[in-house]
Design goal:
With about 350 residues, the protein is an alpha/beta fold. About 45% of the residues lie in helices and about 15% in strands. Strands 4, 5, 6, 7, 8, 9 and 10 form a seven-stranded mixed sheet that branches. Strands 2-1-3 form a three-stranded parallel sheet. Helix 2 links the parallel strand 1 and strand 2. The structure holds pentane-1,5-diamine. Pentane-1,5-diamine binds next to strand 9.
């Protein structure tokens, strides 16, 4: 008994039960940060980061709209952010608590103001494109040397998919990204907002679904890197991370990322503070920390996504700032499209359509 008492006293002395440790609860996408940055934040501020991850905007949205998520900082994509702002899910940022705001890149802030007028509720974390990741040798083995790796036809033409099924294809479980791509493939507006147009993708996606090994939004990084799949319709930085993991493993797998020639979605992931965040002051400290030029650069250098921080650019590695798949040139950028949120009725139709398509796998 005495021993127990003593060891409890020792633990208290060591601070194990200190109730005063300040925390910030962050909910971010999986595979989206260099965790050393979280340690650095703790060292600089004394605030513990409780870090959880998700891989779909729909999951984040469900938590946010239910309220009481317990998160201080969350990272919705612009089109979702817009609808969530309208639903009252966020508090306005207090710019006085964000001295690093001057580091941000006006070009990106301007683009995001489509979703968040005046950039009142969020700042950019990362931005990127949705495109095609290939294990180039496997794909050539299956489809020949002229495999259309730079075209949406690679994944939307069932004749290609039937063959690729033998080496494995993953497609994002992200209806608001895959449906626009399929619309673009059939020559429709990727940002179409009416169900009649949107439903035109049903035969296209139904025809390829049986050849899709998985609709999933995070497993493809390792699956590509290990050679378990040969194609992923996924996010730019994730594919580049797979390329890196394969190179590190020295397993002979060679991964490439292609922005389809027909055009691709350009999206923006935004740091925002829920209206009921338990610790808004720590949330601002965390966001300000991520807006530090060197920290933003460290994050991009690790995850291979572009960021919206102009001042970080001088600290970016050449294989990041100099890679057109991460920081696309003007010509490529002019071929990128953005999307807007569906209204609730259309959104329900999209969810129904997506469930139906996936049930055909
Ligand atoms: C990180 C994926 C985030 C990009 N793994 C999707 N918005």
């Amino acid at each position: 008994m005495k021993r127990t008492m003593l060891s409890v006293a020792a633990l208290i002395a060591a601070g194990a039960f200190s109730a005063s440790a300040e925390e910030v609860h962050v909910y971010n996408w999986s595979d989206y940060i260099d965790e050393e940055l979280l340690t650095k934040f703790k060292d600089e501020t004394g605030i513990d980061v409780v870090y959880d991850v998700f891989d779909s905007n729909e999951i984040l949205e469900t938590k946010l709209l239910a309220g009481g998520s317990g998160y201080d900082v969350v990272v919705p994509t612009g089109s979702f952010l817009q609808r969530q702002i309208q639903a009252g899910a966020f508090q306005k940022l207090d710019k006085a608590q964000l001295p690093n705001i001057g580091n941000m890149w006006d070009v990106i802030a301007d683009r995001v103001s489509k979703y968040d007028p005046g950039n009142e509720y969020a700042v950019n974390y990362m931005w990127g494109t949705t495109g095609i990741g290939v294990n180039i040798n496997k794909v050539k083995e299956v489809l020949g040397d002229d495999a259309p790796v730079g075209s949406l036809a690679l994944v939307f033409d069932p004749a290609n998919m039937e063959k690729l099924a033998s080496c494995g294809v993953h497609i994002l479980d992200a209806p608001t990204e895959i449906i626009p791509a399929a619309l673009r493939y059939i020559g429709e507006d990727p940002d179409a907002q009416d169900l009649e147009t949107i439903e035109k993708v049903e035969p296209v996606l139904t025809a390829i679904a049986p050849y899709v090994q998985k609709f999933h939004s995070s497993e493809y990084i390792n699956a590509l890197a290990n050679g378990d799949i040969c194609v992923a319709f996924g996010w730019s930085g994730d594919v580049l991370m797979a390329r890196d993991r394969a190179a590190e493993a020295d397993n002979g797998v060679e991964i490439e990322y292609h922005i389809p020639k027909e055009g691709a979605l350009m999206w923006f992931d935004q740091l925002a503070v829920p209206v009921d965040a338990p610790n808004p002051s720590a949330a601002h400290k965390f966001i300000n920390f991520m807006m530090d030029a060197q920290n933003a650069a460290a994050a991009s250098n690790y995850v291979y996504y572009a960021n919206g921080n102009k001042a970080s650019q001088e600290f970016l590695n050449e294989d990041v700032i100099g890679d057109g798949a991460i920081y696309p040139d003007e010509e490529t950028t002019s071929n990128l499209y953005t999307t807007s949120p569906y209204d609730p009725k259309v959104n329900r139709g999209v969810t129904r359509l997506w469930t139906k398509i996936k049930s055909g796998t």
